[in-house]
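This entry is set out below.
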Amino acid sequence: MSKILFRQQLSKDVFLMKLHAPLIAEERSAGQFIILQVDEDYGERIPLTIADADLSEGSITIIFQVVGKSTLTLSLLKEGEEIPALVGPLGKPTHIENFGTVVCVGGGIGVAPLHPIAQALKKAGNNVITIIGARTKELIILEDKMKAIADEFILCTDDGSYGRKALVTEPLKEICERSPKPNMVIAIGPPIMMKFCSETTRPYEVFTQVSLNTIMVDGTGMCGGCRVNVGNEVKFVCVDGPEFDGHKVNFDNMISRLNSYKEFERTMHQCYLEQQIQQKEAVR
């Protein structure tokens, strides 16, 4: 059991929670994740990156977006309630050293897992350039935290409602054209965004690391649900990742596998919403 210590709605469908998990808080490193299950007896196991940790209160912070029934159920839990199943930290930690100049690119909810990595890179002495973006102003998260870490900060929105009207790949390309070019790029966000960030940096031969969030069940590499093609090899995101060389990831294959469950997600989400409405009306 893990008690919810704090809950905050960051935007329309994005929520932040602090969970009591002292052992995970103590052991976690930047880039690692947890898997939780909202229902003890059945239901989906949800992989979520550890966005932050507080050793003094024994808590970890998760940030998630409502996309289906499980994340909707999680979002409806209140402070003081408990999550019955929580395991972690899982995955390989981000390799942190002083690379020089590192560009951290976050898209939408991807800014959450990017935060502890940028924080660790800055602490290691890197010059950190941060680009964050979203479709619109309401979907920007952790702006102040990311700005506080960055030596240079760029904010973009697709519709121009806040910051620069551009996709994150536009300022990324400009930075790669500088002399000297950056030593490394870390991109985290929707798969299509990570794909095009990787394609943007490829001509400049700037190593680009991406963090993948695939279908995941057990988190130990046994189920094979999280498999991805990286170069000429099959990798398992839960144990070999979640971070890989973006120039080697077969994003088209990964996106195709992720999309196979989208309609089911939408259907379950809608059914659950209708059940909630019916229950409220029955109480009245």
Q: What stands out?
A: The CA atoms of residues 110 and 189 lie 4 Å apart.
